[in-house]
Amino acid sequence: MDRIVILGAAESGVGAAVLAKKKGFEVFVSDMGKIKPHYKQMLDERQIPWEEGQHTENLILNAKEIIKSPGIPDKAPMIQKVRAAGIPIISEIEFAGRYTNSKMVCITGSNGKTTTTSLIYHIFKNAGYDVGLAGNIGNSLALQVAEDPHAIYVIELSSFQLDNMYDFRANIAVLLNITPDHLDRYDFKMQNYTDSKMRIIRNQTKDDAFVFWNDDPIIAQELKKYHIESRLCPFSILKKQGMIGYIADGEYVIEKPTPFNMEQEALSLTGKHNLYNSLAAGITADLSGISNEQIRKSLSDFKGVEHRLERVCDVRGVHFVNDSKATNVDACWYALDSMKTPVILILGGLDKGNDYEAIRDLVRQKCRGLVFLGVDNRKLHEFFDPIGIPTAEVRSMRDCVNECYRMAQPGDTVLLSPCCASFDLFKNMEDRGEQFKEFVRAL
C-alpha cells in the first residue's frame, strides 16, 4: 500500500486526506500548528492518523508522495527536507484531478478571482447545472470528489495552488490579470510569480478554452512565449477587433459562441474592475451553453462577495466599506478608483513586497486621511507621510474604527482596503473584515 503524507490540516489538507483514504492509500496528516476541532473530527471519523504542533520526520520522509497545503512556503524546513529526499510534492487540486472526469472551470488572477469565481458559480447554479465550488472558496475539491461529486467544478486557484499542479487540466481557464502580489514567496521576482499564474493553461487542448483580459500588459507579453492550443477568448472593456466580449455604448456584449448583450446599467456589480469580472463570467457561461436568459438574470441579481467592497452601514452620514480582501496594491487601486466621496483609507498589515507608487495619485486625490493598522508601519509612513495627508497609527481594529470615525466628516467613506496580508494582527483576511464590521456596527 502506497503511503501519502499531507502537510497542513485545514480545508485542502483534510479533503486530500479523505480522498486518499477512500482510494486505498496509507495516509498520515501533519500540521505544525493547531488543527481545528472540526477537522480533527473529520480525520478521526475516517480513522486517519494525524499530528499537530510538529512534523515528525520519520513519519513524513517515508512517503511516496506529499500533498502540501498552499499556505506552506517552499522555504519551510520540512519542505526542504522532503525535496532533499526526492519525494514528489503536489497540491490537493492536482491530487483530486486524478480521480474525476468532471468539467473543470478554473479562475486565477491577482485581483477579482473570488468575485469572478462566485459569479460563475452563481450563473451555473441558477441555470440548474450540477456544479461544485472549490479551491480558495467552498469545500475542498478533493473532499467533493470523494464524498459529494459534481459534473462541473468552478475552482478559484491561487498562485500557490498552481505551483504544485502538473497534470491537472482546466477545460475553461480564466486569467483576469497579473499584477505584483505575494512577491515575498517568489524571491521578490515578478517573473517567478507571473510564471506561476500562467500555469493555468498547462495541459489545455484544442477542445478547451482560455478566457483572458486582453489589455493586461503582462498577459499580452507572456502570450508571445506560449504555443496555446486551446480556443483563445480575449475580452476588453473597449470594443476592439478580435474581442469575444467588451463594453460599447453602454452595452455589455458577448459576440460568440452565442451572441449576447444587455445594458451595462443592469449589471449588479458596479465599478470598472467589475466590468472585467462580469465579462469573464459571462463568456465562461456562454462557452458552457448557458442560455442568454439565464446569463442575463444572474448577471443582474448577483449579490457580490463578502469582504470585497462590501457596504457595511452608514453611521451619522459616514459610509463604511469593507474591502478586507484587498491584500495587494492593485486591489486597493480598484477600490479607490470606484470611490465617489472623500475617503479615510485604512492601510497596513503584513507587507508582501508592496510598491505603493501605483496608488500615490489616487490617495492624493481622494483621501482625507490615512489610518495605518499594523505591527510595523514604517514603510507606510516613509511612502505616504510626504504626501501631507493626516495619518494615524493603531494596533487594534477597535482603535482603528474609532480613529477613522474621528477623522471622517459627514458624506465621507471609511474604506478598509489594506494592501497587505492580515496575519500580523488577525487570524486571516476574513477575521479582519469581520472585526471591522463588528466595531463599525457598534458605533
Keyword list:
single chain; Rossmann fold; six-stranded mixed sheet; 20 strands; 35% helix
Describe the fold and architecture.
The chain is α/β, with parallel strands linked by helices and 443 residues long. It has three domains: 3-90, Rossmann fold, CATH 3.40.50; 94-301, 3-Layer(aba) Sandwich (UDP-N-acetylmuramoyl-L-alanine:D-glutamate ligase); 310-441, Mur ligase, C-terminal domain (Protein-Tyrosine Phosphatase, Chain A, Alpha-Beta Complex), CATH 3.90.190.20. It is 35% helix and 21% strand. The chain contains 17 helices and 20 strands. The strands form four sheets. It has a six-stranded parallel sheet with strand order 7-8-6-9-10-11, covered by helices on one side. Strands 15-16-20-17-18-19 form a six-stranded mixed sheet. The protein has a five-stranded parallel sheet with strand order 3-2-1-4-5. Helix 1 (11-22) runs parallel beside helix 7.
Strand segment count:
20
Helix proportion of residues, in percent? Answer: 25-40%
**C-alpha-based Rg, rounded:** 22 Å
Question: Which CATH class of the largest domain is shown?
Answer: Alpha Beta
Distance separating the two termini: 59 Å
Name of the CATH architecture of the largest domain: 3-Layer(aba) Sandwich
Number of helices: 17
- Residues in β-strands, percent: 15-25%
Classification by helices and strands: alpha/beta
Widest sheet: strand ordering:
7-8-6-9-10-11
Number of domains: 3
Per the CATH scheme, the topology name of the largest domain is UDP-N-acetylmuramoyl-L-alanine:D-glutamate ligase
Average residue-wise pLDDT: 95
Question: Biggest sheet, in brief?
Answer: 6 strands, parallel
Query: Ranges with pLDDT <50 over ≥5 residues?
Result: none
